Amino acid sequence: MDEDLRMFRTQVRQFVKEEFVPHQGRWRDQHRPDPEAWEKAGESGLLLRDVPKEYGGGGGSFAHTAVVLEELAQAGVPFGTREHSIVAHYIHMYGSEEQKRNWLPRMAVGRLVGAIAMTEPSGGSDLQGLKTTARREGDHYVVNGSKAFITNGWHASIICLAVKTESSAAGPKGISLLIVESKSLAGYSASDPLKTVGLHGQDTCELVFKDVRVPVSNLLGSAEGNGFFQMMEQLPYERLQIGVLAITMAERALAITTKYVKERKAFGKPLSDLQNTRFKLAECKTEAHIGRVFLDDCIGRIIAGRLDAVTAAMAKYWLTDCQNRIVDECVQLHGGYGYLTEYPIGRMWIDCRMQRIGGGTNEIMKEMIGWSI
Ligand SMILES: Cc1cc2nc3c(=O)[nH]c(=O)nc-3n(C[C@H](O)[C@H](O)[C@H](O)COP(=O)(O)OP(=O)(O)OC[C@H]3O[C@@H](n4cnc5c(N)ncnc54)[C@H](O)[C@@H]3O)c2cc1C
Predict the structure, then answer these.
(1) Is 190 in the pocket of ligand 1 (CB under 6 A)?
(2) What letter does residue 219 receive in the DSSP assignment?
(3) What is the pLDDT of residues 228-254, one digit of tens each?
(4) Which helix or strand (DSSP H or E) is residue 147 part of?
């Protein structure tokens, strides 16, 4: 943290409190944010903070991205800045100068909303087995296939799409990333938001591509077949963002529960007077602290350009497991009220479960760590 980040945090907190928090009930009912929320977020400087200013970004670092995620998590607002920034990151890392100038400034102001589309109905863990194809026809690719569980899917107007450009190529070599500007694109459709167990305020959809024509110039990178390697290089960025959300939510759960157990009485005295309550909170506080120290170390590493894939996998797996353990204990300490979605702790419980699944499941993270041993 420094003075610049502290001022930015104050600004983000104020914006989220005024523009997002009051609409949460409605966003949950409609299973998506209001469309204008994206442009408001862009106007307030929440989007693409870690992209250079020359492309419309904030010129900051991962620390700025972390501040935005922390403030959203502290306010209990699920909003897909994470997926949006991941798309921008792919464009920034692998896009040509022309591609960057074309897409990033519009993403920075929220006129284009990003979605990252890797997972398919037939499987998400086995990325090499993806089935969506992009067949070259003159100066276009013809894309066919579908993607499942895509965050920001309903709003998405710029999609980073993983496809097979070479269907006969074995393993990862046939995979490429295409940038698809999807609004009013013939053959493209997004489902209504799926009825997810949690994260009700954001849109998770299925995307379908039927003979969709995408200009060849929308390929990311200088040649076909680099997609898998690009994803492997960039997944640490995504996984660390998941870690930021995990620890922030765990800290929030702890703060809410600490207050609750001091107010709620059983057998004539506050729950906090019971040794079990203090022991459980002591365990949670210790774990959250360990998580925060590990997370801060990883943030330092990513800013210095040396967060490796295995450490990012450790962070994603351990921090989200830690989050789930803490939030679950906090629900228990709330008793029946912890099971109500009108209580923040109840919503946190249903929201946090996805963290062990998305961005690569925790089992896949352990596989990666295991291979390195
Ligand atoms: C709310 C939500 C939002 C999401 N947003 C996005 C998004 O924006 N973009 C996107 O592309 N995807 C998104 N996903 C998809 C998510 O990344 C996948 O669900 C995840 O990668 C797992 O894929 P799968 O569901 O196909 O499970 P599967 O791959 O079928 O796995 C099923 C189970 O088998 C286990 N398993 C699989 N292979 C192995 C192995 N080798 N060793 C040990 N265990 C294994 C898994 O760990 C899991 O427990 C989202 C999912 C959810 C729920």
Answers:
(1) no
(2) B
(3) 999 999 999 999 999 999 999 999 999
(4) strand 140-151
